[in-house]
Amino acid sequence: MRIFKLSNATISSSIRIATLILVLFALGCVNDAYQTKPTPPVPANAQKVKETKEEIHVEISPPKSDAASPTSIVTRQAAQPSGTHSVRSASETEANPPAPTIHKSERPSTFTEDKTRVKTDQELLDSALEFCNAATDFWNQGDLDNAMDALDQAYSLILQVDPDQSPEILQQRDDLRITISKKIMQVYSSRFTVVNGKHHAIPLTMNADVKRAISLFQGSERKFFLRAYQRSGKYRPMILKKLKKAGLPQSLSWLPLIESGYTVRALSRARALGMWQFIASTGYKYGLERDRWVDERMDPEKATDAAIAYLTELHQIFGDWLTVLAAYNCGEGRVLRCIKDQRIDYLDHFWDLYSKLPSETAFYVPKFLAVLHIVNDPKAYGFELPPVDGEIKTDEVMVHKPMHLKTMAKYLGVSYMTLRNLNPALRYYATPDRPYAFKVPEGDGKLLVAKLDAIPRYRPSYPTYVTYRVRRGDNLSGIAGRYRAT
């Protein structure tokens, strides 16, 4: 073993420098840029260099004439070679026992002994985004503590981005800062108030827009809200059963209150029809038939099945229930275009898109959240909710011929309006000329079966017709001759 000797002045100077470094570390004044510098060379008079995975010890021995004890300088590093190398004799160990180890607080380092490795600003932003996504996953699982920890980690990473970077990098940093802040607010807002007590369901967000929707229900739309709430008793039990079977949040059973007020024949300006407000093309996509006899968009049970299928598909696309509700209102294509126009593909939460959505859609979600707040705690918002209507219970009978509901009501001894309300999908209040599952009040099914042959066949007074799509070159006389008409 070779031992190098230095003058007392050199040793004293080295000790002062080492002491200054330790003081700076203790005060937290050494920043990340310092840590990323290459490790300084070991002094020539080093008697011992002890390397471990966690620590590097450099002990400087004074000349033999100096009776001072050796000084130990320790810096903690995160990634060092796993091997241990000792260059100190046993006699020196007995003569000069090691000084107490001084530890710097643990902090991840981005360099190793052999090669400097510093994360680029883009890598820092990518890591921060991964923490944001992990926070969302924790939140959906109801693990709010880990969600907050992940967001804290993400924020600490973006703080390390060099402020002198390119505008594109700085824009990404600012967008991530906004996203992290919004997610923190979302997690905190759902910490104690969530639908059905499940964190993975629809969080009961409260903000200025939701408060404005609550004020609307307290004022000009109060009568509508109370009447729709009362009418919900007819259909909501059926909706709840189907939502539970599909594994969807049961708070979605209040969505028809916003869509139609639980009115099965509701028709919007956009030609959306029924309790769940399907337009014709979307209805076809999810199995709702429509012809001159029947429009199944007005059938509560079939429309509910279609709505559940649609909501499930939207959730697979967006993963966030509030964005799903926005897409249900204005279409998934419109929401996807809003996400694309932002040029930042991770700003896809509803409140990120709020200002870019159509005004009706943007206010649609706060109105739904307002309904959840009111039905969960009506007294807090000045409501005394009325008793709901009774659930509709029916028998189904398969019929095979056209029959008008007025005629059927006479034979069954029930009111015409009762049969109309039980079979709202019949466009002209008559059964079609094909097999059809007709609903009658519970207990009257056997009576209808017994009298089916006696009920006369219905012959509509309006002429039958077919639908023909006009093609280039068609004229009225040609079309009339095709169908033997005038």
Computed CA radius of gyration, to the nearest angstrom? 37 Å
Straight-line distance between termini: 117 Å
Q: Approximately how much beta-strand content do the residues carry?
A: 5-15%
Order of helices and strands: HHEEEHHHHHHHHHHHHHEHHEHH
Q: How many H/I helices? A: 19
Number of strands: 5
- Average pLDDT for all residues: 76
User: Outline, from the CA principal axes?
Assistant: elongated
Structural class: mainly alpha
The spatial strand order of the largest sheet comes to: 1-2-3
Amount of helix: 40-55%
Low-pLDDT parts are: 1-11, 23-115, 191-200
Largest sheet: 3 strands, antiparallel
Which properties best describe this structure?
mainly alpha; two-stranded antiparallel ribbon; 19 helices; disordered N terminus
Give a verbal description of the structure:
With 486 residues, this protein is mainly alpha-helical. The chain is 46% helix and 6% strand. It is built from 19 helices and five strands. It has a three-stranded antiparallel beta sheet with strand order 1-2-3, covered by helices on one side. It is elongated and about 85 Å long. Residues 1-11, 23-115 and 191-200 have low confidence and may be disordered.
